[in-house]
Amino acid sequence: MNRISRIFKSHLISDQFTKCNSWSRKRWALSYSTQTQPAEAESTSDLIGSKEGTKRVSPLMHEDFFNVHSLFTMNDLFDARVHYGHKEGSLNNFMRPYIFGSRLEHLIFDLDKTAEHLRLALNIAAHIAYRDGIILFIGQTPQNAHLIEATAKECGAYAHTRLFQKGLFSNSTTVFNGITRLPDLCIFFNTLSTVLEEHRGVAEAAKMNIATIGIVDTNCDPRLITYPVPGNDDSPVSQELYCKLFKAAILKGQERRRLDFRKTIAEDPKPVDLSE
Which of 46, 88, 123, 143 is the most exposed place for a label (fewest CB within 10 A)? Predict the structure, then answer.
C-alpha cells in the first residue's frame, strides 16, 4: 500500500486532484506511521483519537474500514448481467474456478465468488485513494471510453482509453521525454484489447510492480492481475455498474482522508519536521 516508487511527472497526470502542501504531507505520514490498533478492536472503533492517549485504529487492520461491502448486493450483480460469460469453446483454463456452470452453451459465473473478489478490489481502491495514491482507469473498448473517462474525472482519478503504447510504463522516461511518476493502481475494465490479444497495459504494470484490478471474463487470463474480478466485461450495463462502484469506493477513501486530516490538524496545528 505504501510502496515507494520513483518520482514521476507524467502527461497522464493532470491537475484535477488537489495535493496537500509539503509540511502537511510530512506530518500526515508521521501520524499514520505511529497509529496502533486498540486493545479491544470493535467494528465501530475506527474513530481518530485525541492526544490524551486514545489509540487510533489502523485502516489496514480493519475488516471493512470504508464500508465498501454495502455498495452492492447480489441482485445488483445479477441485474447488471455480470454473470454472463462467453461460449464454452472460448474458456480460459485459469478461469475455471470462477465458473458456476453453463446454459445454452454459454458460461455462467459464480456470483458468490465474483462478489467476494469485487469487495476485495473495492477495498483496495479505497485504501489507495485514502493514501493519496494515483489511480488510473484503463479501457480500450470504444463504446465504453466516454463512460470510463467521465467516471475517472468525477472521482479525481485518471483514464487511458486509447491504444496503449508499448513501454508506456516500463520505458516511460523515453516515451514522455522526461522523468515521470507511474500510477499506484491500475483498474482495467477490459483486460483484452481484442478477442485473443491481452491488453498491453497488463504486462506493463506487472513489469513495474504496479498493483492492478481487472475485470476478467471467461476468455481472459487472470494470472498477471493482482486483484482479478471475474465477470462480464462486454455488457454496457455491467460496465456502468463497475464504474459506479469504483467511483464510490474512491470517493469514500478520499472523503475519509480529508476527515482524518482535519482531525489531525485540529489536534496539533503545528508542522512536524521529520528531519529532526
Answer: 143
